[in-house]
Amino acid sequence: MDNVQTNKSLHEQRNKVIAKGNASGTDRYIAHASGAILTDIEGQDYIDFAGGIAVMNVGHSHPKVVKAIKDQAEKFTHTCFMVAPYASPVKLAEKLCKAVPGDSPKAVMFANSGAEAVENAVKIARYATQKTGIIAFESGFHGRTLMGMTLTSKVKPYKYGLGPFAPEVYRMPYANCYRCPFGKEYPKCNVCCADHLEEFFVSHVAAEQTAAIIVEPIQGEGGFIAPPKEYFQKLKAICEKNGVLMIADEIQTGMGRTGYMFAMDYYGVEADITTVAKSLAAGMPLSAVVGKKEIMDSVHPSGIGGTYGGNPLTCEAALAVFDIFETEDLLGRAKLLGEKLQARLHGMQEKHALIGDVRGLGPMIAMELVHDRQAKTPAADKAKALVQYCLGQNLILLACGTYGNVIRFLMPLVITDEQLEQGMQIIEHGLTAIS
Ligand SMILES: Cc1ncc(COP(=O)(O)O)c(C=O)c1O
């Protein structure tokens, strides 16, 4: 039955049984994938610049990941770590405690998705501080569960009509140098957007009632907004002065995406709690909350957890991911990829007026499309057109941003030079075609 199905027929079938809200960006149905290439059920190949939204940093179907999952599946698939534990979550927690920035002793809890990690990070921060307020940021994204969507900033499609939202969440402007919410210019601004936290404690929520701020080191869905280096150091210092925890949501930035294992390595800041998911287990549903040990241990037994958290298949996959980073110099490859992307995109920006900004850290890079460079009018229509053009040329590309006008690059870090160049040429032709 499968081999006679086309993308079109499967799409029609899907529309009958999959909820409309559970939407897909393309109507190409994947049969198999390898490295940075996806192959659909009709045998067409696509260069993957999306990586399943930042999940496939080690590449699709990496042999070590596949072997780890197969080997574990033959032993057992589930006993529940809360009932009859096993070794892989322990080994993986050791790796995570070492890899997450900062020298403080740490501990880990495992869950299944990014949003679930965020939920737990908030629970733990509240328990440890015995305070309730959480400060999130404009254009931030933290998932689609009740707390996740409450913390998320963008209204459509993530929040619209889906409330009411969780209480005790406050929202502060972010360090967005391209569209500065304070109308200032870096570095003359002296990063006053970080100092604003002091004022925020006066005008929005008292520090004495604030458990934590939750921040993406580089905003992902929000448009790959990368603050100046000193921003997080300033923010952390204010948090510490006021007894407020910092939760770094590294779900998109983590696991080598920026050329650093975690983006906070670049910023030189140790968060109190870090959330990790996406590329942690190469597509297996696994997330982690990694925090300072005294904070993590503050919660009573069984106050956090879940049936599947730390599932053995997912943990073995994640151990294989760490092994790949260690043995295949994936961070080195990421840094090189970042340099190539930076050079290529800045070159395109010189030729195409549509590209208002190129920004990011390492290979976590994006270009913001605008109709007018002076007025910075968001060109969401052009971003959409470019994504569609590229799909027609067998390149999977993703848009993001509060205004939907940012094109982001999230290809597997193992992409070959040839595949990368092929993809960039498609984009370059696309920019000409839609201009
Ligand atoms: C920074 C960040 N936090 C949380 C999430 C939610 O993760 P998940 O979709 O696995 O629930 C995402 C997903 O894009 C994310 O980018």
Characteristic terms for this protein:
435 residues; alpha/beta; 7-stranded mixed sheet; binds pyridoxal-5'-phosphate
Q: Estimate the global geometry from the Cα principal axes.
A: globular
Alpha-beta content class: alpha/beta
Quaternary structure type: single chain
Main pleated-sheet profile = 7 strands, mixed
User: Regions with pLDDT < 50 over 5+ consecutive residues?
Assistant: none
**β content, as a range?**
15-25%
Helix content: 25-40%
β-strand number? 15
What spatial order of strands do you see in the largest sheet?
A: 4-10-9-8-7-5-6
Report the bound ligands by name, code or SMILES: pyridoxal-5'-phosphate
Number of continuous helical runs: 14
Calculate the terminal CA-CA distance, rounded to whole Å. Answer: 43 Å
Report the mean per-residue pLDDT as an integer: 97
Could you state the order of secondary-structure elements as H and E? HEEEHHHEHEHEHEHEHEEHHHEEHEEEH
As a whole number of angstroms, the C-alpha radius of gyration is: 21 Å
